[in-house]
Specification:
Layout lengths: L6 E3 L8 H7 L9 H18 L5 E4 L3 H12 L5 E5 L3 H12 L3 E5 L9 H10 L5 E7 L1 E2 L4 E2 L2 H10 L5 E5 L18 E5 L11 E5 L1 H9 L9 H8 L10 H17 L1 H22 L2 E2 L11 E5 L6 H12 L1 E3 L10 E5 L6 H17 L9 H24 L1
Parallel strand pairs: 1-13, 3-4, 3-5, 5-8, 8-9
Antiparallel strand pairs: 2-10, 6-7, 9-10, 11-12, 12-14
Bound molecules: pyridoxal-5'-phosphate (PLP).
Amino acid sequence: MAPGRHFLQIPGPTNVPDRVLRAIDRPTIDHRSPEFGRLGREVLDGLKQIFRTEGPIVIYPASGTGAWEAALVNALSPGDRVLMSETGHFSSLWCEMAGRLGLEVDLIPGDWRRGADPEAIGAKLEGDRGHTIKAVCVVHNETSTGVTSRIAEIRRAIDRAGHPALFMVDTISSLASIDYRHDEWGVDVTVAGSQKGLMLPPGLSFNAVSDKALRASESARLPRSYWDWRPMLASNEAGFFPYTPATNLLYGLREAIAMLLKEGLDNVFARHARHAEATRRTVRAWGLEILCAEPREYSNSLTAVLMPQGHDADELRRVILEAFDMSLGSGLTKLQGKVFRIGHLGDFNDLMLAGTLCGVEMGLRLAGVPHQANGVAAALDHLASATQGAAADERLRAHA
Ligand SMILES: Cc1ncc(COP(=O)(O)O)c(C=O)c1O
């Protein structure tokens, strides 16, 4: 093992805070005991503030893919039409899953540089006079491209069309990093995972469920067993689970929720926004191109950077891992070798970002990738001036 800390700068799994690791490192208790019931209720209630919902949240001992499946099989029936938008690798995987489950997917194609288009979604729904589309599925933050779709605008487009389709949103790499409001934005099923903004190891995933989705689940006919919301919600009333829960991850979740609420969700979002902006300034100063082509859709969780023609992103990542013990995200499927992804989400601060960007800059040099030197200075300037601004605001508040 290399000395010092490994830099885990992939866009999830993210760095797990020591506090969360220590919380997990406790004896596993009886999952039918009163103590467990209290833990269960505590995390189920605490999560509502993170998803910004008053409704129920289901926790699965599964990766995010499980929660995708749960959303579809609980609310839909064989042959139902679902409207999906191609934003990148993850939206494509969700789309393939829907097809395998026997749903009829209506896909709005995309170029992997933009988010889901509210206008295009609205137009499709307006054209669907018979209301054969049963769900609109969108990935909020496309982790493969660093593009964040405009969920509130998509909600408005659905409403303008007066269409009754369910709205399902994947927030696996946005929850607890980028502003997200399940209730306010009228989302019916929110899909999330533990290993990104929630700062936990992989292994838990979530469905936040609206009343409308619950009603749809009563008549939905896709086969479901393990993922069924009904036994979950019944056991959850008293903080229990119908099968063995991931007890130690729930200890970690309790700690992570406490940390996020103590910092304040809006502060968490502002921290991520600041780090994302600093990263983008540095990428531009290097003379490299950000994959996201729509500035209002820049992701605050990660930045995908296009390689100059003739240079391979995986070779750069290899050099950086070997020389500086830092992992960066790879380009997925059609972006393989063409982009590298810098994760700046989760338990992360200014100096970790500075170290990350220094590692990338030194790597560009070592790997012989053409770039402007000292691009990191742009991030440092931004971080220092934004900190100065925040400190001045704090002083003003103190004197008010
Ligand atoms: C946006 C998004 N959706 C879905 C997934 C799939 O989740 P998992 O790999 O936890 O099954 C990921 C994984 O990174 C993701 O980033």
